[in-house]
Write a structure and sequence with these properties.
The protein is mainly α. Helices cover 33% and strands 0% of the residues. The chain has one domain. It contains 4 helices and no strands.
Length: 96
Amino acid sequence: MSQMIASVMVEAILACRLGCAACCIAPSISSAIPEMPNGKAAGERCVQLDTAGLCKIFGHPERPKVCSSLQATASMCGTSAHDAMIYLTELERLTA
C-alpha cells in the first residue's frame, strides 16, 4: 500500500470545505448516481453538484455509499480546492 493511502487511514477527520467539490469531480465512481446510472469517470463533474459546489443528494439514501463514506482529512484537502484536486487525482491514478 502506498504511503499516501496509508496516511489517510490514520489521519484526523476534518469538516468538509463547503463548495470545494474536489471529491465530487476528481475520483471515478462506479456505482449508480441519480441521473448518472453508470457512475462517473475520473475528472467528470457529478451532475448532483449544484452551482455552489454542494451535493444535491447529501444525506439522502440514493447518495452512493462511496460518497458518504469518504472523510475529509488535512492531507487530502490541503489548504484549497486546488490542493484537494491534485491529491485526489493522484489517489485516483494510484488506485485505478
